[in-house]
Amino acid sequence: RALPDCHFLLVGDGPLRADVEAALVEEGIAERTVLTGLRRDVPRLMAALDVFLLTSLWEGLPRVIPQAMALEIPVVANRADGTAEAIAHGETGFLCEPGEITELADHCLTLLRNPDLRRIMGQRGREFANREFDVRQMVTQIAELYETLLEQKGLRKI
Q1: In CATH, what number is assigned to the domain containing residue 72?
Q2: What are the tens digits of pLDDT across the range 33-53?
Q3: Do the domain assignments include residue 53?
Q4: What one-character DSSP code corresponds to residue 57?
């Protein structure tokens, strides 16, 4: 409501869809919201975003976070499992305690009202994603982990 020109894109589906639709009507933002259902082309949809909001209360490491960062989109998310490892709070996006809806909204508003901050965080996010989520680096880290575990078990390296 604070930004009447703001539009929302909700990707995904589930048993609470009717509740979500009712809440959108109740909040008066249904006409500014698109519910896509399940999609396979999420990165293409993300290209239209200014801010990526992930409200999951539990996640491993959601692929959508590095995907958003690669597109220079700052991320606002709940501090849940893998999200805290994937987002540098205040640098590449914002982390909020689960259930703190006002805090999520405030961080989104901060980014939407500050294009320069959004751009800077987006650039930092891309650098972070390139550094931390590079496939070659991840393979090297996994191989090193296996070697360490084998050594701890007294087994030889492969």
Answers
A1: 3.40.50.2000
A2: 999 999 999 888 998 999 999
A3: yes
A4: S
The number of domains in the chain is: 1
Domain housing 61 = 40-152
pTM of the model: 0.80
Q: Which of 60, 101, 105, 106 is nearest to 83 (CA)?
A: 60
Indicate if the alpha-carbon torsion angle 55, 59, 64, 65 is positive or negative: positive
Sign of the torsion formed by the C-alpha atoms of 27, 47, 82 and 122: negative
Residue 146: strand, helix, or coil: helix
Q: Is there a domain that residue 45 lies in?
A: yes
In-domain check, residue 144: yes
Is the four-CA dihedral 80, 92, 61, 142 of positive or negative sign? Answer: negative
Q: Flag whether pLDDT at 64 surpasses 70.
A: yes
First to last CA, the chain: 58
Structure tokens at 16: 């609470």
Helices and strands: H and E segment counts in the chain: 7, 5
CA–CA distance, 137 with 63 (Å, rounded to integer): 16
- Amino acid identity, residue 9? L
